[in-house]
Amino acid sequence: DVYKRQNMNKLGMIACHDHDVQHHYCADHILHLTALKAIASDTCIEPLKSLKALVTFINSSPQSNAKLVDCQKKISPEKKPLKLLNEVRTRWWSTYSMIQRANRLKQALLMMKRNEVMLRQQNRRQLAVSKLEQLCLDEDDFNTLGFLEELLAPFADAQRCLEGEKYVNISLIVLVIKKLQSALVGAYAAAEHEPQLQRVVEDMLSDFNERWGEEIS
Question: What are the pLDDT digits (tens) for 82-101?
């Protein structure tokens, strides 16, 4: 995909040079670049790092995965248990889906942590904290993950909208961009008391405005 985008960009620049027209990059890809600001390794907030480690551990441990399934059955016996989703580094949507799934399983994950703590406290011989207990998330972590899901959701919706194949979508770009800019401004205000989250939103908004302009008409 990277090489395809590079080739298309090169073709666009050549066509612009030869025919004196203006080159516009793919709107969908530009939105992708802004969304990456929230989950890039150099700006990644701690709860998201913790979630990535927890997902990797549980999905590679049949025993831990069974504990998660058991907690889900206790909370909602009528529902089919779900697995945590791994991210794919080349697809930012996969990170969004990972966050979304974790938030959906919040109560089961919190129960799993409580069970690990109780098991350790009941077993007098087991003084060390288990790896699973070390990695489990708490309420504050989920508050941050909930904020990230709300922050990224409009970008996921926008990209789905612009990737539609059964309708003309170029006319939707201005409306989509204005709504995203408004969502980022709102998110920045909402993160007023969370400096780390506000810096993430500020990076996204700065990148967004640099690419699209601060005044979108």
Answer: 999 998 876 778 899 999 99
For residues 30 and 211, the answer to whether their CB atoms sit within 8 Å is yes
Phi, psi torsion values for 4, nearest 5 degrees:
-65, -45
Q: Which two tokens stand for residue 60?
A: 């590679």
Nearest-angstrom CA–CA distance, 107 and 63:
19
- For the packed helices 46-59 and 62-75, what is the interaxial angle rounded to 10 degrees? 110
Residue 82 CB partners (closer than 8 Å, separation 6+): 72, 101, 104, 105
Q: Which amino acid is at 203?
A: D
Mean pLDDT for 47-75 is 96
pLDDT at 37 over 70: yes
pLDDT for residue 194: 92
- pLDDT score, position 1: 47
Alpha helices for the chain (secondary structure H): 2-19, 27-36, 46-59, 62-75, 92-104, 106-122, 131-135, 139-162, 173-190, 195-212
Question: What Rg value do the Cα atoms of the chain yield, rounded?
Answer: 21
